[in-house]
Amino acid sequence: MIIFGTKGYLYQLAILTLVCGQCGNPSAHTLRKRVTKFTLFFVPLFPFSTKYATQCTFCGAEQKVTKEQAEQLQAQAQSASGRGGQPQPYGQPPQQQPYQS
């Protein structure tokens, strides 16, 4: 018996202030990356689907974007905040350095 399937991962790449195309409000938008991986015996092996989208935090409208647009938005967010970093899984706090006295 072979057990296979898929597992989805959602990463929050950036938070940007944009004007929403749905509600017209200038509000925060989250840039998200959804990766679906093929699993064999519950072990994720390789990604076979990657999609990018922005979601308005005011009205909840979601808009799909291309990989190139997502990279441009992420670069724009990093240059605006003045810091870089790796994407964090959605719903997970960013990893911080331990406090040293």
Can you tell me about this structure?
The protein is elongated. The protein has a five-stranded antiparallel beta sheet with strand order 4-3-2-1-5, with helices on one face. The protein is mainly β and 101 residues long. Strand 3 and strand 4 form a beta hairpin. It has one helix and five strands, in the order ββββαβ.
Task: Sum up the overall morphology in one term.
Answer: elongated
* Proportion of residues in extended strands: over 45%
Q: Summarize the amount of helix as a percent range.
A: 10-25%
Work out the radius of gyration: 16 Å
SSE class: mainly beta
Secondary structure tally, helices: 1
User: Poorly predicted ranges (pLDDT <50, ≥5 residues)?
Assistant: 88-101
Q: Largest sheet, described in full?
A: 5 strands, antiparallel
What is the mean predicted local confidence, pLDDT? 82
Order of helices and strands: EEEEHE
Distance between the termini: 55 Å
